[in-house]
Here is the input.
Amino acid sequence: MTRVYKFGGASVKDAAGVRNVERIVRLALQEQRPLTNDGLMVVISAMGKTTNALERVVEFLDAGKEEQALNQWVDIIDFHVAIMKELGLQPGVDIRLQGEIPYDPTLPFDENYDQVVSMGEIMSTQIIAVYLLKQGISVEWWNIPKLLRTDHTWREAVVDSETSASVIRAGWNRANRPQVVVTQGFLGGTADGKRTTLGREGSDYTAALLANYLDAESVTIWKDVPGILNADPRIEPNTVLIPSLRYQDAVELSYSGAQVIHPKTIRPLQNKEIPLYVKPFGDPEAAGTRIAADGVGPVDVPIYIWRKNQILITMRAKDFAFALEESLSEIFDIIHRHRLKVSLIQSSAVTISVCVDNTRFVSPAIEELNKHFKVSYNDHLSLLTIRDTTPEIIENAKAGRTIMLSQTTRRTARLVVKEEENQ
Ligand code: ASP
Ligand code: MG
Here is the structure.
C-alpha cells in the first residue's frame, strides 16, 4: 500500500538533511511489500527558513525596494546552490534554478506572494528529486500546482478535492510509475495555471490530502522532535513523549496552538481512518507518536500548549441594550469575512470578547467592528491551554504571570496571558 512521508523545512535545511531523507526513503523501500500499487509519496517543504526569506522578497518589491529584494533573492539562490554543490550536483547542469523573480508589479500583492513564495518548495523538491535519482533511487518529480487544483484565494487557497483526487490518482496508478514520487507541500494551482499556497505551514495538510486521495496506509511527518510532546521543549524543561493520540486530541492540540501539526491535517485522514505518525528524522526507527481513531489519548500528563501572538478584542454595545443573540451573528459575520482565526470566545451580560491570531487581517476587522460596537483590545498576548490538568497545575501556571482572562473546565484550563520578555 501507498505510504506518504512529509519532510518539513527543518529536516531539509542543509545537505546533511537531504542525505538523511535519502536514508529514510531507502528504509521505506526496504520495508515495502510488493503490492501493485505500492509506492512512496514524499512531500517536502522549502529548505530551512526559505519561506520567510521569500516573503521578504515580495515585501521589498511591494515597497519599491528593488535592490534589497534582489539581494535577498540572490542570497536564497546562493543558499540552494551551496547545498547542491555539497550534494555533488551541478547547478545549471543537473538543475536549472529559476533566474528571475516571478513578480509582476501590475498584480495584487497576494497573487505575487504566491508566485514568489512557492519557489521555495519548487527548488527544494527539484534538488532532492535529482539527488535521489543520482543515488540510484527510481523517483519522479511532480509539479503539484498542475495537479492539486485550488480556487484563487491567494495565500489560503481552497482545494478542489474532486478534481485533484482524480488527476492525482490517475498519475499514481499509471503504469511504470517509479516507486518514489517527490512533490511540494503547501502549493496548489488554479485552473488557469497560477501557483497558489495553502497557508503557512501547510505542507502537513498537503500530505494528508494526498494520503486521502491515494487511500494510503499511513502518513509520517518527519520532524526535529521525538514525536508529540506534552509541552514545547523550548519553554518547559521536562517534557514527555505522548505515544498515542486520538484524532480528536490531535485536532484540539493543533487548534490550541501546538506547532507539531497543521490544524487542517487531521480531517482528510480521519475521513479514511489513515493513521498519522510523527517521528524524529534523526532516529527513523523510533516509534514517535501515532494518531489514529483507536488512539488512547494522553495519559496522566498535563499537556501545555502555547498559542502566541494573540489579540483580545472586546465588544460592548453602543447603547446599553446588548442583545447577545443578534450581536453574535453580526460579530462572527465580520470576523469570518476578515478571515480572523478565533482561538477563544467569552461573553458576559454586556460584552463579548474574542481572542484571535494577531495577523494583518485584524485592523481592518476592528475598524468594521468599531462601526457597530464599542471596541477595545489588548495585544502582545499568548493563549496557554493546559489539558488534563489539576487545580494545582493551573495555580502554578498562573503564578508570576499577568492573566487577562481565564476559562477552566474540569480538565482543561485556557489562560490568556500577557507575553513576557522572557517567553
Ligand atoms: N514552507 C512553508 C512554510 O514554511 C510550508 C511548510 O513548511 O509547511 O510555511
Ligand atoms: Mg517551512
